[in-house]
Design a protein that fits this description.
Blueprint lengths: L1 H12 L16 H30 L4 H20 L6 H19 L6 E4 L2 E6 L4 E2 L1 H17 L7 H16 L4 H17 L4 H21 L1 H11 L10 H13 L24 H34 L3 H25 L17 H20 L1
Antiparallel strand pairs: 1-2, 2-3
């Protein structure tokens, strides 16, 4: 009996990696908390500045989008605070149910009456009191599931990993939402690589993915037109290349110091998706190159703190979760900013913590709450 009790105590004290669990510290990473608060508050300001014209046009209320974003921010901050207090190890056993539920939700977007079809895409669910975008939830679910899976030593997981990728990424790409599919694939590749996967597997997946996403882009007239405008911005200036031309015009108009907060001209129905995918263009126009550089620096600081937390995590599961959440935010930010300066084709990827959108904001803040809990345990 004494032996059994001793083993149970030891099991509770030792993490999956074999390290003894440390007692939680009194505070989470304060610098990370400060960065997140600054970015989200700044995001509310920029959502308001970028959406005034379309809010008046569509809702006769200039504060509509800012007010909605503020509601979601409050929910997201509450979720972040709650999850920062819940031991991240509890997500280990929840990983499989979360993945199954996410796959069901991704399928449900195609069901009449529940799924919402907008602009030719099936990306949202009408849940009555809220509208959910399951592909945003899929990012967090994928991080938790793969971290739990890869925390355990296992041989021959490549075929099963490949099947999971085809299911999850395929469902998102079929909505269609190729931009989010790319982010999901990149997150999976990062976690698979850092779990100790063979370089041959990673290289093979990368080559196949490039070919697959290229095929998806070519067979879609809309995406193919965006690729053509990426290589030739002068192609179809009033059609496919209109958005990127307006983005570059906004950034160029900002100059070094910007035209001033609230003084953007491109937001007055010239710049498509001004409050969502293209919000960084308004940022660059209003606060200029120097202000935009500060915003980028804040994201770099956030990523640095995330990787620092991953390095100090007490076990393999915590390390992979921290690495996955941080890589997700870094990858999504990089893709959005790269698209804004015409380094990659426009993808429709929002800027984390800043772009308008409830699902994205709440899910990212929830993920950061788990990251903060890992920092408390380190």
């Amino acid at each position: 009996m004494k032996s059994i009790i001793s083993r149970l105590i030891h099991r509770n004290a030792v993490g999956r990696s074999g390290r003894v669990r440390k007692r939680p510290s009194a505070h989470a990473d304060r610098l990370l908390v400060s960065i997140v608060l600054v970015l989200t508050v700044f995001g509310i300001l920029m959502v308001y500045n970028s959406s005034v014209a379309i809010a008046i046009r569509d809702f006769s209320d200039q504060y509509y989008f800012a007010r909605e974003q503020l509601k979601w921010l409050i929910v997201g901050l509450i979720a972040c605070g709650v999850l920062s207090r819940i031991d991240y190890r509890r997500w280990f056993n929840a990983a499989l149910p979360l993945m199954v539920a996410t796959l069901v939700l991704l399928l449900a977007v195609f069901l009449p009456g529940i799924g919402i079809r907008a602009l030719g895409a099936h990306r949202w669910l009408n849940l009555g009191i809220i509208t959910l975008q399951p592909s945003e939830l899929a990012k967090l679910t994928l991080v938790i599931y793969l971290s739990a899976w890869f925390a355990l030593k296992e041989k021959g997981r490549f075929p099963a990993f490949l099947v999971l990728l085809i299911m999850l990424v395929g469902l998102v790409a079929f909505q269609p939402d190729v931009g989010t599919a790319v982010v999901l694939f990149a997150i999976a590749m990062v976690l698979y690589f850092f779990s100790g996967a063979p370089i041959l597997h990673v290289s093979l997946l990368f080559i196949v993915s490039v070919i697959g996403f290229a095929v998806l882009s070519v067979i879609s007239p809309y995406r193919f037109a965006r690729i053509l405008t990426f290589f030739n911005p002068e192609h179809d200036p009033l059609g496919a290349s209109y958005q990127i031309r307006q983005v570059l015009l906004a950034l160029g108009s900002g100059g070094l110091f910007g035209v001033g907060i609230g003084q953007s001209r491109q937001k007055y129905d010239y710049l498509p998706e001004a409050n969502t995918d293209s919000i960084f263009a308004v940022i660059g126009e209003e606060i200029g190159f120097l202000g935009a550089t500060v915003v980028i620096a804040l994201f770099l600081l956030l990523v640095w703190r995330g990787f620092r937390i991953a390095k100090r995590a007490p076990d393999t599961f915590g390390r992979l979760v921290a690495l996955g959440v941080t890589s997700w935010i870094a990858i999504q930010t990089l893709i959005n900013l790269s698209a804004m300066v015409a380094l990659v084709p426009l993808t429709g990827i929002p800027l984390p913590l800043i772009s308008y959108g409830g699902s994205s904001l709440i899910i990212v803040l929830s993920a950061l709450g788990i990251l903060l809990n890992i920092s408390r345990q380190s």
